[in-house]
Every structure is written in structure tokens, then in C-alpha cells.
Design a protein that fits this description.
Elements: H1 6-17, H2 35-46, H3 58-67, H4 79-91, H5 95-104, H6 111-114, H7 117-130, E1 137-140, E2 162-165, H8 188-191, H9 196-208, H10 213-227, H11 264-268, H12 271-286, H13 296-308, H14 313-325, H15 332-335, H16 349-368, H17 370-374, H18 388-417, H19 425-432, H20 444-456, H21 462-469, H22 479-486, H23 493-519, H24 531-536, H25 540-585, H26 593-606, H27 608-628, H28 637-642, H29 645-652
Antiparallel strand pairs: 1-2
Length: about 650
């Protein structure tokens, strides 16, 4: 070993120079990477024995050779050259061997980092994960290969793992005609066995090579579900405190992670909890910033763990912004995050308030840049881009839908947290009013939250109850909510009156719309609901009022028809009277004008009763026409009076 190891030669000669017998000198190599197993393999190599280089021992043997300074200067074909050649030409060309070597580097820091073993394995894994599966041939070692060409879900320690076969090979297993193309997530399970710092290196290399962000997010979600207990909804956890990440040495920690809060809190946290915090902070750091790269539920559960483990404040703030981008996708169960600080409330209401603020800021940003944001998302087969106005309208509609979903989520959250007796009225009111009024088309959810808060806080004063009820709009309550509010003794009397008044206005508007539709069906557009459907949705008390109003309308219609009939009868009598007058005043051919005038006057003197009865009828008819129709349009009343009876009759007809 002295002839092949520079360090051994130097240590032995230094011991001899100190007066020790070189044949019996004891040399201690406590800091040798790879421990006794790696030293035994190096010694066997020095004595010319056969050494089996495998993916499991190559990294420790390479680090031990570097530690022992077994270079080419001492002897050609020394251990450094042999191990380096095996790494470059055997390990890095194999998917399985790259995973195994990277896994074995966990206890070799910082030697594996300094010798670029971690970097080269990470880039090899990233290149194979990003390559198009159709451009390579796949082969599986072992008898338990995945069916249908799918890589089996076994760890790198097993034999049933994919082997990268770029050259194509001649084996039947690598024939493209005998196996299907692997799915896009074939590599998730294999990389999930890596420690968090090595996983970060692999994901970073994959990002550089341009993999889709949704696949990266899915890989991160899969990894977090195995290494972080309680992160998944069902509480399943693939790891355990006995796994390597829980006993990772301090030298193998992350180099790019912002440190936590520090101080006395770190002393109170156990070692597994500190390792979990490192995993949480690392996952937050490598999560793609694009929207929908991971689900909102995953981000909220990750946020819960980050707050509980006292992660770095900068990372927690960044995670809150990410949740705000997708808040409309959240579920109520994920939003109910306990208050881990010294707050009196059971749930972290301030956190939800910050999430809503981040959501509104994101919505305003997207609305401002909606045309540019929507154009790249159009399918490639579109020959023309969407017009800016149409894109802005689409973004506006999407924003309103997102706000409506957030409003429903926030109302449900308020209903849950309102049962907390320690929740102050100010916090409840600020959170309820955090969204604009246009976000809610119906305030039933907000009314339930207000009623629940009044139940849990019976000691509120009248002023506080009025202040609480200002958060909801009585005009946006449904009929069921109005009926409940009208009988709710916890509400202030003024609010009950407002509810009843708003419901009465709704009913009046509905009746007016229905009457206008019936009176002029051709002039008005068709209503989406019929009068029968409107009556079916109206309560019994208001249906009785509807029936009374309908009866009055029918009575008025009957009276109007009777008045029209009388009007026509009087008009016929007037025509007959006019003809009689014209016949009496007509002169005979043999008589002169004076005789006609005298004769007419005599005839008029002989029939005073007919004239008086006729003019009485005409007077009644004039009063009736004046009351109903008034003067004819475009003619002054004086002119109408000066006109003859013929003109007055025509104006009435």
C-alpha cells in the first residue's frame, strides 16, 4: 500500500521519523470515507486481488482512493483511474446504477460533492428523465419487470428497475414492438428514494433541461407524500423515523436552504422535526412558480407543516402567495389551519386574511395583463389570435367565477370559525368584508356565518349586533333565508324590517313584471320563467295576496269592457241624432232659403223634448270622453269646442 498510496507512505514515514518501528507502527484513519469496507477493498486492490466494482461500492471506493492519494503518479492504472473509468463509462450510462450511486453518496459528504459524483449522477438522471421515451429503447433487468413496458415500482436496491439502453441492444426485451412507451411519471418512484438534498439537485437539473412544470410538480408531490407524514389527506406516509433522512449527518445538509427561525425554538425541536423542516423548506424552494404546477390542497397542507415546524419566514410568505394564486381551488378542510402561535383563536384567521389579500392582488395583476397572458395558452391549430377585447372579457368572466368560488369558500370558513368564542368581532367583520360586493350574488352563506356568530356570542350588545349585520346585504338573501331571518330573535329589529322590506320589493317587482308581460306580450321579450313557475316559488301568504290582486285586475277589466260597450251605444245614438238634425234642416227644392230657415225654426219649436234629451246624452258623452281620452292630440281644447259636431265625433272615434 505504501507503493500505491501517497497518504499511507507519508504517514508511515512520518511515524518512523518520530522513532516508531515502521514494522509495528499503528496508523489510525478515522476520517476515511467509506469506513472499513472501502479500506479493505483498496487494500485488496493494492495486493493484486480481484476487486468487484459495483454501483453499490464504487462511490465509497472512489472517495477512499482520493483520500489515500492513489494517483497515477505512483503507479499507472491506480485505483483512482480504475474507479473514475467505471463511473464514467458504466454507472452514468445506466439509470438504475445512477440512482444507486447517488443514494450511496449520502454518507460520503463532502467527498462525493468535491469529486463531482453527486453532480454527474444528478445530471445523468435528469437527462434520462427528460429524454423522449420514443427515442430510446428500454430494457428491464430481473424477472419482475413492469407489464406493458411500464417500469416496475421497485427501489434501486432491487433488480426490477429500468436499464437505459441508448445503443438499442439486440435483446428481445428492448424491442420497441414488444413493449409500450413508458408513461411520463415512470421516474417518480425511483427518485423518491433519494435524500432531500440529492432530490433537490436532481429536480434542479431537470428544470434546467426544460421539463414540463406540471410533471415536476407531480414528482415533488409524490416525493413529499412519502417523506412528510400527514401531508396527504389520508395521512399515509411512505417513510418512517428510522429511514436515512432522519439520521442524516449534519455534513449532508442543504447548501441552498434559508435557515429557520433559530434561537430557543430550535433547541425545543427534536432532530426528526428539524429534518422535516429541512424537507419542507427544500420542497418550497424547488416547487415551480407556475400556476397549477401543484394542487392548492397540497400547498395548503405544506403551509400547515411549514407553520407548525417554524420554517423560514421568507419561505412561508412565498408559499402564502402561491396559495393565493390558486385559492379558488382550495377545500374548506385544508383551509382550517390551527393557530400554532400564541393567538387566542383556535384557527389562524389572520393567515386566511392574508391568503385572500394575495388572491385579490393576483386577480388584479391577471386582469391588467389578461390579453398577453391568454394568448400563449391558445392551441397551436388556431390560425388567428383571440382579439384583445375578447381575451379581456374572457379573463374578466374567469375572474368573476374565481371570486365567486372564493366567496363561497370564505363563507363556509366563516361559518366554521364563528363558533370560536375567542374570535373577535373585528376579525370576523374584516374577513367577511375582504372580498368586493360583486363577488357574492347571494348572501345566504354570509347570513349563516352571522347567525352562527350570534349563537356563539350571546353577550353582544345591540350596537355590536347591528355592526355585525352590516357585512351582509339583505337584498341578496334568498326567500328561505328571508323567512328564517324574519323569525330570528337574535337579529336586531331594524335588520328584520330591512329583510321584510327587501322581500316585499322583490315580490312587487315580480308582480309588475308579470302584469307588464300579460298586458303587452309582443312588446316585451319573453321572460325566462312563466307565471305559473313564479307562483310555485312564492310562499302561501304571498300567493293569497297574488290571488286578491288578480281578482281586482279581472274586476277592472270587466268594468273596462262594460264602459267600452256603453261608449259604443252612445256613439250610435249620437249618429242617429245627427242624421235626424241634418234631415230636418235640409231645404226643399221649391222653397227659397228664407222658407227653409223659417220652416226649420218652426219644426224645432215643435220638438223641444227630443232636442233636450239629445243634448243631455251628448253632454254625458262629452264628459265621458273628456275624462277618458282628453282632447285629441295636436288640437287645443278651444279649437275642439269650436269645431262642428262632425269633427268632435271623428275625434272620439
Amino acid at each position: 500500500m505504501i507503493s500505491r498510496s501517497g497518504r499511507m507512505s507519508r504517514v508511515i514515514y512520518e511515524s518512523a521519523a518520530a522513532g516508531s518501528d515502521p514494522d509495528t507502527a499503528a496508523v489510525e484513519l478515522d476520517d476515511l470515507p467509506g469506513d472499513a469496507e472501502a479500506f479493505e477493498l483498496a487494500a485488496r486492490f493494492c495486493y493484486g486481488m480481484a476487486v468487484d466494482l459495483t454501483a453499490a461500492n464504487i462511490s465509497s471506493l472512489r472517495c477512499a482512493a482520493e483520500y489515500l492519494e492513489m494517483t497515477e503518479d505512483l503507479e499507472e492504472g491506480n485505483l483512482i483511474f480504475k474507479t473514475e473509468a467505471f463511473l464514467s463509462y458504466v454507472v452514468l450510462s445506466s439509470w438504475r446504477d445512477s440512482i444507486v450511486v447517488l443514494k450511496s453518496c449520502e454518507g460520503l459528504s463532502p467527498w462525493a460533492e468535491n469529486l463531482q459524483i453527486v453532480r454527474r449522477c444528478s445530471e445523468s438522471i435528469a437527462w434520462k428523465a427528460c429524454a423522449n421515451p420514443r427515442g430510446v429503447r428500454w430494457a428491464y433487468t430481473g424477472a419482475s419487470g413492469g407489464a406493458g413496458g411500464r417500469p416496475p415500482r421497485s427501489g434501486p436496491s432491487g433488480t426490477a428497475s429500468p436499464r437505459w439502453n441508448v445503443s438499442g441492444g439486440n435483446s428481445k426485451e428492448s424491442s420497441p414492438s414488444r413493449q409500450a412507451v413508458p408513461p411520463a411519471d415512470w421516474w417518480f418512484e425511483d427518485v423518491s428514494v433519494l435524500r432531500i438534498d440529492h432530490f433537490v439537485r436532481v429536480v434542479t437539473a431537470i428544470k434546467v433541461k426544460g421539463m414540463r412544470f406540471d410533471l415536476i410538480g407531480a414528482a415533488i408531490t409524490h416525493y413529499a407524500s412519502k417523506w412528510l407524514p400527514g401531508l396527504t389527506k389520508d395521512g399515509s406516509h411512505g417513510g418512517s423515523p428510522d429511514e436515512p433522512w432522519a439520521q442524516a449527518s449534519a455534513g449532508g445538509g442543504l447548501h441552498m436552504i434559508i435557515s429557520g427561525a433559530g434561537g430557543k425554538d430550535d433547541l425545543a425541536i427534536s432532530a426528526p422535526a428539524r429534518e422535516q423542516r429541512m424537507v419542507v423548506e427544500s420542497i418550497i424552494s424547488i416547487t415551480p412558480p407556475q400556476r397549477d404546477s401543484v394542487s392548492c390542497g397540497f400547498l395548503l397542507r405544506l403551509l400547515r407543516l411549514a407553520i407548525m415546524l417554524k420554517a423560514a419566514p421568507a419561505l412561508v410568505t412565498e408559499l402564502e402567495k402561491r396559495v393565493g394564486m390558486q385559492l379558488e381551488q382550495a377545500a374548506l378542510a385544508d383551509l382550517l389551519i390551527p393557530s400554532y402561535s400564541r393567538a387566542d383563536t383556535a384557527y389562524d384567521v389572520d393567515l386566511v386574511q392574508r391568503l385572500v389579500e394575495h388572491f385579490l392582488v393576483q386577480e388584479q395583476t391577471e386582469m391588467a395583463s389578461s390579453p398577453g397572458r391568454l394568448e400563449p395558452q391558445q392551441p397551436e391549430y388556431y390560425s388567428a389570435r383571440m382579439p384583445p377585447a375578447a381575451a379581456a372579457a374572457s379573463a374578466s368572466a374567469t375572474g368573476l367565477n374565481a371570486k365567486a368560488r372564493v366567496a363561497r369558500l370564505l363563507d363556509s370558513y366563516l361559518s366554521e370559525v364563528s363558533r370560536d368564542r375567542n374570535l373577535s368581532l373585528t376579525k370576523f367583520q374584516v374577513l367577511a368584508e375582504s372580498l368586493p360586493e360583486s363577488a357574492r350574488t347571494c348572501d345566504d352563506g354570509l347570513y349563516r356565518a352571522v347567525d352562527s356568530y350570534l349563537k356563539a356570542h350571546p353577550t353582544l350588545t345591540e350596537h355590536e349586533r347591528k355592526r355585525l349585520c352590516r357585512v351582509m346585504d339583505c337584498q341578496k338573501l334568498s326567500f328561505d333565508a328571508c323567512m328564517h331571518a324574519a323569525q330570528n330573535e337574535r337579529l336586531p329589529l331594524r335588520v328584520v324590517v330591512q329583510v321584510l322590506f327587501s322581500e316585499q320589493v322583490k315580490i312587487s317587482n315580480a308582480l309588475a313584471s308579470s302584469s307588464a308581460l300579460k298586458a303587452a306580450p309582443d312588446a316585451l321579450p319573453a321572460m325566462p320563467t312563466t307565471r305559473r313557475q313564479l307562483l310555485d316559488g312564492t310562499p302561501q301568504s304571498f300567493q293569497e295576496g297574488w290571488a286578491a290582486a288578480k281578482k281586482d285586475i279581472n274586476t277592472l277589466k270587466f268594468e273596462l269592457e262594460s264602459m267600452k260597450a256603453k261608449y259604443l251605444e252612445l256613439q250610435h245614438e249620437m249618429d242617429a241624432l245627427q242624421k235626424q238634425v241634418d234631415g230636418r234642416s235640409a231645404p226643399s227644392p221649391a222653397a227659397g232659403p228664407g222658407a227653409a230657415k223659417i220652416g226649420g225654426g218652426k219644426r224645432l219649436q215643435h220638438g223641444p223634448s227630443a232636442w233636450s234629451s239629445g243634448w243631455k246624452k251628448l253632454g254625458r258623452l262629452a264628459k265621458m270622453s273628456g275624462a277618458e281620452a282628453g282632447a285629441p292630440p295636436g288640437i287645443a281644447p278651444g279649437e275642439a269646442a269650436r269645431k262642428g259636431p262632425r269633427r268632435w265625433r271623428n275625434s272620439i272615434s
